[in-house]
Amino acid sequence: MGHTPLGYRIKNGIAVIDEEAAAKVRQLYKNYLGGLSLTNAAKEAGIKALHAGAKRIMQNEHYLGDDFYPAIIDKETFHAAGVEIRRRSTKLGRDDRYKAPEAKKAPILFRFKDIKEYYDNPVKQAEYLYSLIESEVI
Fold it and tell me: Of 73, 75, 88, 106, which is most buried by a Cβ count within 10 Å?
């Protein structure tokens, strides 16, 4: 596991909420959704973080709660912050920086050579059929 996110501490091997730090995280979201920049929202919340660090904190899904970390932020607030980050990014012309990874599609149509052999063993038959694949049909 990496480092413990701001707002948590580990006690006896279990993540627990550090209320003082968690209050800063909640305030970060509140400040940002209230109109402050990421840097100023962090500064006003008492968090030493610049733009990228504050953004990374706000996009950390551990704050929603998971198998290890208890929830600090509710889903509505987390979602609203994500929408606002994207809105501001688009407004500033920075929405072209993220490119979604291309969805990899498995080929499903193939051209086969003529089947000339048949085997009783299904594994051997499958190996033979795979060897007959010439190309994907486009």
Answer: 73
| Residue (of 39, 43, 71, 44) closest to 56 by Cα position | 39
What architecture is domain 8-91?
A: Alpha-Beta Complex (3.90)
pTM over 0.70: no
Q: Where are the domains of the chain?
A: 8-91, 101-138
Looking at this protein, which amino acid is placed at residue 100?
A
**Cα 136 to Cα 8, 105, 117, 130, distances in angstroms:** 51, 12, 22, 12
Tokens read off for 7: 């707002």
